Amino acid sequence: MIRGLSLYEVEYLVAIVSLFVSIGALGVLIAIVAK
């Protein structure tokens, strides 16, 4: 039970982290282009 839940939480966390990373990379790219 705990293992499945933690696995689901890890998958959810990875999705959020990858989303933030892609947004951050896009923001840096825009900042470089705007400069």
Task: Write structural notes for this entry.
The chain crosses the membrane at residues 12-34. Keywords: Membrane, Transmembrane, Transmembrane helix. This protein is mainly alpha-helical. It has one domain. Helices cover 94% and strands 0% of the residues. It has one helix and no strands. The chain has one helix at 2-34. The termini are far apart. The mean pLDDT is 89.
Features:
mainly alpha
Tell me what portion of residues adopts beta-strand conformation: under 5%
Order of helices and strands: H
Largest sheet: none
Task: Return Rg in Å.
Answer: 15 Å
Q: Which stretches are poorly predicted, pLDDT < 50 over at least 5 residues? A: none
Strand-pairing-aware structural class: mainly alpha
Tally the structural domains.
1
Number of helices: 1
What share of residues is helical? over 70%
Please give the number of β-strands.
0
Apparent shape: rod-shaped
The rounded distance between the terminal residues' Cα atoms is 51 Å
How would you state the average pLDDT, rounded? Answer: 89
List the helices and strands and how they pair.
Layout: H1 2-34
Summarize this entry quickly:
The protein is mainly α.
